[in-house]
Amino acid sequence: MAEFAKITSRVIAEFEKILGNNGVIFNDKDTLENYAHDETGGEYYSHMPDVVLKPENTEQISKILKIANAECIPITPRGAGSGLAGASVPIFGGVVISFEKMNKILEVDKTNLVAVAEPGVVTNDLCRKVSELGLYYAGYPMSVETSFIGGNVATNAGGSKVIKYGNTAHHVLGMEAVLPDGEIVQFGGKRRKDSSGYDITRLMVGSEGTLAVFTKIFLNLIPLPGKTVDLLAPFGDIYTAISNVGPLIAESKTLPSAVEFIDNTSVILGSKYNNITLPFQEKAGAYLIIQYEGRDKAELESIYEKAGKALIDGKAMDVFVADNRTNSEKIWRIRRNWLEGIKAFEPHTPTGDVVVPTSEIPQIMECISEISKEYKVQIPVAGHAADGNLHPAPMKPKSMELEDWKNLSEEILSKIAIKAAQMGGAVSGEHGIGFVKKELLKKTKSKQYEIMKSLKDAIDPNGIMNPGKLF
Questions:
Q1: What is the DSSP string of 113-136?
Q2: pLDDT by residue (tens digit) across 177-226?
Q3: What is the pLDDT of residues 336-352, one digit of tens each?
Q4: Is the CB of residue 440 less than 8 Å from the CB of residue 416?
Q5: How far are the Cα atoms of 182, 243, 429 from residue 385, in angstroms, in the given order?
Q6: Residue 58 within a domain
Q7: Is residue 452 part of a domain?
Q8: Strands 213-220 and 51-53: what pairing?
Q9: Is 83 inside any structural domain?
Q10: How many domains does the chain have?
Q11: Are residues 324 and 352 located together in one domain of the fold?
Q12: Three-state SS for 170?
């Protein structure tokens, strides 16, 4: 990686020629501060950019990257800033490219079942648009109302629907991208088959802005599913709840579209934050939230009766059926606002993101419990239980200083992540690596790490693309 250059007034003038004055933020500390961090940890993980650029099209991005590559200026692509691994934090300063103006849904192709979107499209806006046409984008994460499509693709985001539909990578058919030298290329497209050499599209998904800038994304659509039903099952303790996930899927004989887990601490705090009360919340140690899809009411009833029996046999305290939008929203709001509910009471709460094989969920939960006791720190947990993706969120003890807590919380989350990898999992299931987990990536994927680094060096020899992330 070459030594990075400072941004001069001459370079700023070149950017202004490309974008106009309204597309360039420079020498405005208050506004630049908004682009200095993501949701990882506020003041813990923050670095000011030198300039923020707001392009409106691919050609402008191409011109920006040509300048940055020639001058050796670091580039940090940024979506909504909703990430939890520091991927959009400009830790070397330089240029932040914000996609807030590239927010158009360019096409919904009903014949080929493909949506084409710019990277700044809010995920929920795409979901709403295609649903109006009787179609469904199944790749959305839990942060559907805030995240951008480009950020989802850059981190290979997951969510509650992965067990049935897969994570973001399963829904990306292609992308238009600008390489570090400014060349505009397209990988994939509206086709669903292509065995013509290496799958570069899949390489780009999850690359966290270290290889190229995405400017158009081709997304797979499916017909809108039929009716849905949500089940809420409280359990006496965490391990009983978690241990039900595998048997539930096997005995109900129907693949759920979601199986979510949330522990009692999270429910208590979430109920206060959302002004909602769940059944048994003073007694239950944990809950499962299960969603099924069916063609009609009769099919759904048959499915949830089998699922309910399996849950009761698995020692659920009861099974509550939410078959209307109001009751479903009540259940999902606590899960969807899980981290916000915790941070309302302890704002300095980071969250981890680990994944293990489903069979290892009880073991990783036991490990988290042991670490909680060892460090005398409360660690609420929620997650996508059906695919083994859990989110521990250690809460800062009231008496601890912030700097001490930063170091301790990193140690706690690293210990959990390494344990997950040792169980056949990975240090991140859906939030990505960013700079927060780059040492963990190196420790747990040594040969893969070398291969990834060689690809990075080949595509971005000057190292300008999101430096300090992944590597």
A1: TEEEE-TT-BHHHHHHHHHTTTEE
A2: 999 999 999 999 999 999 999 999 999 999 999 999 999 999 999 999 88
A3: 999 999 999 999 999 98
A4: no
A5: 42, 10, 12
A6: no
A7: no
A8: unpaired
A9: no
A10: 3
A11: no
A12: helix
